[in-house]
Design brief:
Elements lengths: L9 E3 L2 E3 L3 E3 L15 H8 L6 E8 L19 H13 L3 E7 L16 E2 L16 E2 L2 H20 L4 E6 L4 H6 L14 H4 L1 H14 L4 E7 L9 H13 L5 E4 L17 H12 L4 E4 L5 H9 L5 E3 L2 H5 L3 H6 L25 H6 L1
Parallel strand pairs: 3-4, 3-12, 4-5, 5-8, 6-7, 8-9, 9-10, 10-11, 11-12
Antiparallel strand pairs: 1-2
Length: 362
């Protein structure tokens, strides 16, 4: 078979994946303002056949943690019915179904939260020119405890909806990432200061999920393993990954935190810094690692796996440009894939009709 590494099955803690391709959590912004799943969302996942694992887009665990007014919610039992339709569609394709559970922290605005105040580890706004209403309230012990329970309740709802796994969002400057980063976390209590304290939020979220779900669902993390200068370092990210693995996390999905990571790719390297960050984590832990960043073709995906950089590859923009990317690669039709044009700003998120690859496919 062509791309034999990409299309080799993998079993993770009893969960069988038919191949090593992962659809990462690609936000659609098509839920209702109550966070309910719409037919458009279900249809989008119906078209997402092929990857061995599909991770449903960031789903809000709490109303004040919403990233957008039409973000999927998983903070109310009313959300379970719609989410169960997505899980069923994913399973029909033969893939494992995961869902990313998410809290934006300070990385949102009061319009997206419908007027609810923003919260974060410290009262530091994401942007220097943020209006007063978007300066977050520093979380106290009681509120941290509440949000951690929200993550556990979200995982319980995901299990009830039929998902195989949840992914705690600890990357891209959202709440889990904010706790990890000295750029956002200046607390001096048990949730800030030392790396061990800054990692406590993600570790405790994982612990509560496991306790709430009693092994009925796997709990992983999209870990922002490095920030820009002055934030979480690569060595610190590696240590956090080790702790999560020691805590029993079955696999990790590695990305970046706040800002771009340090340069890791040598001159002329075919790999992105983000993918090589995943490779650094894989060297340090004994659990599977999903890598992401700059994978556009089946050849690239297969080589990353063959070279042992990561155990699974997340294909984001490639699947946005051509939802049949994996199916075509597995059936010898790779020459017909509508390849991503690598636009500087991906049109998918705001004006998908402008995507040049999608236009070509029409």
């Amino acid at each position: 078979m062509p791309y034999r590494h990409l299309f080799t099955p993998l079993e993770i803690a009893g969960l069988r994946l038919p191949n090593r391709a992962v659809r990462p959590p690609l936000v659609l912004w098509k839920a209702t303002e109550e966070g309910l799943v719409t037919p458009d969302i279900v249809e989008n996942y119906r078209r997402a056949r092929g990857p061995g694992m599909v991770i449903v887009e960031a789903s809000a665990v709490s109303p004040e943690g919403r990233l957008a007014r039409n973000q999927i919610g998983i903070f109310d039992d009313r959300h379970v019915e719609g989410l169960s339709k997505i899980a069923a569609i994913i399973h029909e394709s033969g893939a494992a179904a995961s869902i990313q559970i998410h809290h934006a922290g300070r990385n949102t605005n009061s319009s997206n939260t419908f007027g609810l105040p923003l919260v974060a580890p410290s009262a530091l706004a994401e942007k220097l020119d943020a209006p007063p209403r978007d300066i977050p309230i520093a979380l106290d012990e009681r509120e941290i405890d509440r949000i951690l329970d929200c993550f556990a309740a979200a995982a319980r709802r995901a299990s009830e909806a039929g998902f195989d796994a949840v992914e705690i969002h600890g990357a891209h400057g959202y709440l889990g990432s904010q706790f990890l980063s000295p750029l956002a976390n200046q607390s001096r209590d048990q949730w800030g200061g030392s790396l061990e304290n800054r990692a406590r939020f993600l570790r405790e979220a994982h612990k509560r999920i496991r306790r709430a779900c009693d092994g009925k669902i796997l709990a992983s993390c999209r870990l922002g393993a490095a920030d820009r200068a002055g934030g979480l370092t690569v060595d610190e990210g590696i240590q956090v990954a080790r702790w999560l693995a020691e805590d029993g996390m079955p696999y990790l999905h590695i990305s970046t935190g706040i800002g771009d990571p340090p340069r890791l790719a040598p001159e002329g390297s075919p790999w992105s810094d983000r993918l090589l960050l995943g490779a650094r984590i894989r060297e340090a832990v004994k659990i599977p690692v999903i890598g992401v960043g700059g994978i556009f073709t089946p050849e690239q995906a297969d080589r990353a796996l063959a070279d042992g950089l990561v155990d699974l590859v997340a294909i984001g923009r490639g699947l946005l440009a051509d939802p049949q990317w994996v199916m075509k690669a597995s059936t010898g039709l790779e020459d017909t894939i509508n390849l991503c044009h690598r636009c500087k700003v991906c049109h998918h998120f705001r004006r998908p009709e402008r995507c040049p690859a999608r236009t070509e496919a029409a």
